[in-house]
Structure formats: structure tokens, C-alpha cells
Amino acid sequence: MKNIEAIKTRYLKDELPVQLGGISADLARIASFSNSADNWKVVESLLEESKFFIEWIVAEALLEQKAFLVELQIQLALWHRVWSEVYQDPKEREKLTQQASFWSQKVMEMSGLVK
To answer: What sign does the dihedral 89-90-94-97 (CA atoms) show?
Structure first.
């Protein structure tokens, strides 16, 4: 991730629903880019960025949101940890694609930006 402080400063200017929307968008990108092993660096970067986004906002989230976000951050950390080893396995990429798509939808619903 490039210039993390600049990204953090920009990200924290938005309200919580928009911040959650940003996490949802990253998760949707992970789902999309996971389809190809050629995108492994992009996915790795998005996994890292999403973990930071969660870290930066979890304190401001509602209690029920906090529990989900912390669990999500743990799952993203686990994927990030093994990604360099499993990205070449289409079955593993498919698992991440499905999981990230589910998470994206859940976080978008949590944001309240869509009904």
C-alpha cells in the first residue's frame, strides 16, 4: 500500500456509512480480481487495504457492526497470510471470490447506503 498516512487521512474524512461502502467496494474488487492468478498482487494489496480500513473505523462502529468487522478483519488477515501460496490454485481463488462477494454485500447492507 502506497502512502498509508495519506490514504488514512482521506478515508477518515468520510462518514461511517461511506467508509463501510469503501470496504464493501474493496471486497467486491477482491471478488472480481480473484478470478485470475494474474491479479494476485492487486488482490494482495486489496486484502491489506481492507484490513487497514476496518482497523481505522471499528472504534466508531455500532456494537453489532464491531463484532462483524473484527471477524472480517481476522478472516482477511488469514487470507492475506496465505495468499502468496494459494493464489495459483483456482479452487482457493474461487473460495475467496465467493467469500469476498458475500462480505461485500453484508458490509454494504450494514452501511445503510442501499436497502
So the answer is: positive
